[in-house]
Amino acid sequence: MSHGPSASGGALVAAAPHGTSHHVPHVPVFTGDTRAAIETIMARYPTKQAVLLPALWMLQDARGWVSEGGLAEVAQLLELTPAYVKGVVSFYTMYHQHPVGRHFIQVCTTTPCNVCGAEDVVKALLEQTQCSDLGLMSPDGRFTVVEVECLGACGFATPIMINNAFVESVTPDSVPRILSELT
Ligand code: FES
User: Fold this and answer.
1) Pick from 46, 80, 138, 141: CA 20 to 30 A from residue 21's CA?
2) In a mutational test of the pocket of ligand 1, which residue from 107, 109, 110 has the highest number of ligand atoms less than 8 Å from its CB?
3) Count of C-beta atoms within a 10 Å radius of residue 70
4) How many angstroms separate the CA atoms of 112 and 121, rounded?
5) From ligand 1's centre to the CA of 20, what distance in Å?
């Protein structure tokens, strides 16, 4: 079933795509309005540690992924060790541990969707985004495609998620139209 690195059932593992360095200097995220926003959330909880998941989401929203520098910023902000934060980031597959395309496409390839042709949808997406494999970024930086487990829309095979948007009943034929609507 798998074509390579996958978000299914564990941490996404992939090489740095297309020469993208993982060691770009980190520009702090939690300043200005973002700092005010996280402090508002912190005020709702008894400990700073309780804010770790939303803080990581805010970081990923701002930078597209969770770099070592971003991880260290969150650790310092919440008075946690970087190792603890890293453990949480690597546990949840929805946090990206390497740069991903602007459009992060998740395709359900669990059995019910698989028997309805999900593998062909994956192939069409990889070909037409020019991603060389699952989990890798396309040369233009626009796309990353991964396989995931059940997206909860088994009656609408094949469902995909493009960032936070859900698209049902995707077929290889509908892939060009779907991609053409993305900037
Ligand atoms: S098996 Fe594909 S959405 Fe459930």
Assistant:
1) 80
2) 110
3) 23
4) 14
5) 32
pTM attached to this predicted model: 0.79
- From 108, 147, 156, 167, mutation site for ligand 1 pocket: most ligand atoms within 8 A of C-beta: 108
- Rounded to 10°, the helix 82-91/52-63 angle is 80
Distance 8 CA to ligand 1 centre (A): 13
pLDDT tens by residue, 45-96: 999 999 999 999 999 999 999 999 999 999 999 999 999 999 999 999 899 9
Residues 137, 75: one domain? no
Residues 82 and 136 in one domain: no
CATH number at residue 113: 3.40.30.10
Range of the domain at 61: 11-91
pLDDT digits (tens, 9 = 90+) for 114-156: 999 999 999 999 999 999 999 999 999 999 999 999 999 999 9
Q: Report the domain count for the chain.
A: 2
Bond prior to 158 in cis (omega within 30° of 0): yes
